[in-house]
Amino acid sequence: MAGGIPIMIEGLTKQFGPVTAVDDLSFTVEPGRVTGFLGPNGAGKTTTLRVLLGLVRATAGTATFGGTPYHDLPRPLETVGTALEATFHPGRTARHHLKVYATAAGLPAARVQQVLEMVGIAEFADRRVGGYSLGMRQRLSLAYTLIGDPGVFVLDEPINGLDPEGIKWIRGFLQALAREGRTVLVSSHLLSEVQQSVDDVVIISKGRLIKSGTLSSLELEAAPRTIVDSPDREKLSEALDEAGLAYTEGRGGFIVDEHDPGVVGRAAFLGGVELSALHRLKSGLEESFLTLVGGGEE
Amino acid sequence: MSLLRSIASEFQKVFTTRMWWLLALLLVGYVLVLAGGFGAFLGWAVRNPDAAAATGGNTGVPPGTELAPLIYTFASSIGYVFPVLLGALAVTGEFRHRTLTPTFLAEPHRSIVLGGKFVTQLVVGAGLGVAAFATSVGSGAAALAAFDFDTGLDQGDTWALIGRGVLAMALWGGIGVGLGALVPNQVAAIVIVIAFTQFVEPILRLAASFSDVTASIGRFLPGAASDALVGASFYSIMSTGSSSSLDWWQGGLVLLGIAVVATVIGGATTWRRDVT
Ligand SMILES: Nc1ncnc2c1ncn2[C@@H]1O[C@H](COP(=O)(O)OP(=O)(O)OP(=O)(O)O)[C@@H](O)[C@H]1O
Ligand SMILES: [Mg+2]
Description:
heterodimer, A: 6-stranded mixed sheet, 4-stranded antiparallel sheet, P-loop_NTPase (chain A), transport (chain A), ATP hydrolysis activity (chain A), nucleotide-binding (chain A), ABC_transporter-like_ATP-bd (chain A)
């Protein structure tokens, strides 16, 4: 395996005619960590990755692997493993698909069988890809990323179409790669999808950087809230007012702007209110993500 | 080095899908029917001119024409559309199935990929040429021998003609790559191949033969150049202006020129576009 190299995006802009898909974007992805590349649909994630991989020409700025553009990498498949939207010739088998590109990159043919086994599609490898399910195609894409045993992984929405078992597998897999010191960049339009496996996040919206940092720094901003409910909502609202807590009434009870359920519980206790629910709102991170990117849909 | 790897990869691409043998099968069947059929018909008609005239069958073959080269070159004069198609599909298929992404990830130097395709399709075209000539010579010689005609297989000239025919088929493969690079839309490329080879060019060649000036231009049409390269062909005997055709090596250069120019222009335009 080649060592992990940082991915460096500097002042990147890409225009498709009148559409600015990526707008003066800069961030760095460090080796040894899993970085989630997040943003709503159309934020410019795929475009950024395609520029990084030399498939799309930048309008301005650079996107490199430790300073070297993809085009100038001496052995690209052994440096970077890429899974973009899964594209195959439907009439070719998975084994032949991989072999064709292994040959082009000068990799030993024996790698093909190895990676087919690693992603768990070896038994279907001699079937034509046209008959593959979405999840099998995703796994074949992943097999392609592994074929050169690279130090950097660039994965565009790899979780799409995987079954729960596949999702669990890929999460563990990404973390294992990072623990070996590799650079792992994985895009998603849902934070919750990658939340459990990423160390860092880069969040973009409308082609611009919104935030980059560790997941825990995002968690701090997330300001988790507490849900509380009572058979007697009127009395509960009085108790919350008494304690000076801000809240809104939701379907499942009151959503209180307070991260510690203990504080809310105490307010209820002091007001003598019977509680039917008291817990932390779990989706705090996803909500703060949506707040960051402008509420998702507009 | 990377060009060699790219060529090896392109060969694997050709032979790991079914298109190549489908086209090879069609080519062999087409040539078999035409070379064998015409061989038998011409052999019969020349041997029995009165009977042929009685049935209204005018062979149009001037007396004294050697039948063997005429029949053997069916392989290239009607078969050339097959290497063009396969060459064009090698390029347009990458656009259609969006496999340019994995291709350019494995070899980011796009000109090397296109160069690899060009060389590969020259060789594949030559392979189709060998299959086509084996068919036309096999069935044609059998038909001629049946009517007691000279098969010409003991003459060096015949084998030189076959060699030039195989070379023509190879160059047509290169033209296919150039066409695919110029017109990446697969359906459009196929329509252009069929329309041009089956309608446009035959009409142009016929029209060009009506005056000396147009005839001197018309001989640069790819089909005319191909016939000039190969030598005798059904078309050039049918058109009276066979005297104005190019020398064989000029014909070869015209085909090579078309293939290279189309590939280079395509390589500098559509092939360099963003892959999204
Ligand atoms: N080839 C193209 N021509 C024109 N516009 C394009 C092209 N590719 C992308 N765009 C535009 O660029 C913007 C960013 O698209 P991109 O695919 O990079 O977003 P994304 O973040 O990957 O979205 P998603 O989550 O839906 O995959 C969108 O407005 C899109 O319409
Ligand atoms: Mg995308």
